[in-house]
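User: Hey, quick favor. My workstation is busy. Could you predict this chain's structure for me?
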Amino acid sequence: MSQPLALVTGPTAGIGLSFAHQLADRGHDLVLVARDEARLEALAAELRTSYGVTVEVLAADLTDRAALARVEQRVAANENPVGLLVNNAGFGLKRPFLDNDIEAEQAMLDVLVTAVLRLTHAALGQMVPRGTGAVVNVSSVAGYLPRGSYSAAKAYVTSLSEWADLTYRAQGVRVMALLPGFTRTEFHERMDVSQESAPSWMWLDADTLVTDALRDLEKGRTISVPSRRYKVLAGVAKYTPSSLQARFQGLGRK
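Assistant: No problem, here it is.
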């Protein structure tokens, strides 16, 4: 049985790169979306050679509404439809809220929230009538913690995903939120954050994380929290007073 076409945003590094490789290895043809067209083309060539899959490249800056609209159109298309959407693109800001330029905050919101909202809407619009499909929204355990606008954005993504799965599961479409913790990727390097900024036991491997996430999707889980240690931490966070959680805001930001 052929696998559905998968579209992955932010596939050139980290968690997105692992999704691209593991989905290609499973036989999914791919649509890859990121800003850097050269990196996209290089990755596409590698995936075609290694796994024998078809790979489309769609260069787009998700902070640009016109570029985002082009991605929405591809996700919403009924011809050669996207059967699995992985909303993975994202970035973070190292400095506290008031130390950031508001346009930087807006750009982060555009990628973490607006793009996820609009692409999820586009995907569900063609998946629900067909009675099949799945969306994986990469959120974060940070959404359970008071860690600024990044956490607020991720709380939105988790809540949206939970609601959408409850609403459309009966119609054959799944939506799952993936909640990683600290993961060894380019994400923190781009923020100029050292991996020594958090204890070594808190860092996850991206490949293992994605393997577990795809397994959770197959099992029908609405929320995927990788590793036992983060499952425990996520559970504790839900019942820990915000005033106590706030003492750890600097963790992973130095």
